[in-house]
Specification:
Number of helices: 2
Number of domains: 1
Distance between the termini: 16 Å
Oligomer: single chain
Order of helices and strands: EHEEEEEEEEEHEEEEE
CATH class: Mainly Beta
Length: 215
């Protein structure tokens, strides 16, 4: 799967949102328990900006208009940087259980998450220990990641999840402990205890979000 292009096993295109459509079709809402004070949204030339003030619990979040069970999920995002080169605040592109009351049993896959200044990825399902913490023991840090433009792709199929960063595979998990219930797409820019708090505004830009079905 070079350069983030889906393989020949991909079925029909389900969703391809770009620019203003991302803003219009995704719901602007506070998802989860860490987002208590709304941040802001801006619509630019082909991008949507999600901005936090840098002071917890400020956040800006977009949630997909529907949920999915299996598929290929891809987003091209600008990850903001702090003055010291670390990732600013707490940006993320992730899948979360459509039933929040079921967490973590319902599943969570953080495809990109700025934790303590570094891009991490984590997977939770039921009582399963996070396998990505084993694959990337340094807080789950993904090699080659960091501030700037990145294309993040997650392939979720029956019994397997695989993740790509800018077209390069960085993780694969083949197990009976792969979530098989509906998940929502969440794009978020938060401030909080798990992010690198700069006490200053920062913005994650979203250029496009695509979802393909799998056969």
């Amino acid at each position: 799967m070079p350069d983030g292009v889906p393989s020949s096993e991909v079925g029909s295109l389900e969703l391809n949102l770009t620019g203003p459509q991302v803003y219009q079709q995704f719901r602007q809402e506070q998802w989860g328990t860490t987002c208590a004070a709304a941040g802001s949204y801006t619509l630019g030339s082909g991008t949507v900006g999600l901005t936090t003030t840098g002071m917890a619990p400020s956040c800006a979040q977009l949630v997909s208009p529907t949920d999915y069970t299996y598929g290929i999920f891809q987003a091209t995002v600008w990850i903001p940087g702090a003055a010291n080169g670390l990732i600013a605040n707490w940006p993320a592109f992730w899948l979360d259980s459509a039933n929040l009351a079921a967490w973590p049993q319902g599943g969570e896959w953080d495809l990109m998450e700025g934790l303590a200044g570094y891009d991490a990825s984590h997977y939770h399902y039921g009582t399963l220990q996070d396998p990505l913490s084993v694959r990337f023991p340094s807080s789950g840090q993904i090699p080659g990641s960091g501030p700037g433009w990145h294309t993040i792709t997650g392939v979720w199929d029956r019994g397997v999840i695989t993740e790509y960063l800018d077209g390069t595979e960085v993780f694969s998990w083949n197990s009976s402990n792969v979530v098989n219930t509906p998940m929502m797409i969440v794009l978020s820019m938060d401030s909080g205890q798990y992010g690198y708090t700069t006490n200053a505004p920062s913005t994650m830009l979203v250029k496009n979000v695509s979802v393909w079905g799998v056969r």
